[in-house]
Amino acid sequence: MVASAASFQKCFADCRDLVKRKNCAPILVRLAWHDSGNYDKNYGTGGANASIRFDKELAHGGNAGLRNAVSLLEPIKERHPEVSYADLFQMASACAIE
Length: 98
What we know:
The chain is mainly α. Helices cover about 60% and strands about 0% of the residues. It has helices at about 5-20, 25-35, 55-60, 65-80, 85-95. Helix 1 (about 5-20) packs across helix 4, helix 1 (about 5-20) crosses helix 5 and helix 2 (about 25-35) packs across helix 4.
C-alpha cells in the first residue's frame, strides 16, 4: 500500500498534535536519530528503516527509553497504516523540530 500525499498530511498533523499534547519532542528526535544511525555507506544498508522498533534493537543500551517513543507513535500508525514506520518515525522527528 502506497501512502498518498493526503495521508502523509493527515499523519503529519497527528504527529504535530502528539508533540503538542505530550511534550515529547526530544524523544521523537532521538528515536529518528537512533533509527538512522545504523547506515553503512560501504554496503548501502541500514539507515532510517524503522528497525529500531524491534526488540533486538530496543534492547541495546544506547537505545534505552526509546520503546516509549515507539509506543507514543503506535496509535498514529494504527490510524495511518498506509504510512510506513520508517516514514512515521522521521515525520515525527520533523514535527518535533518544527
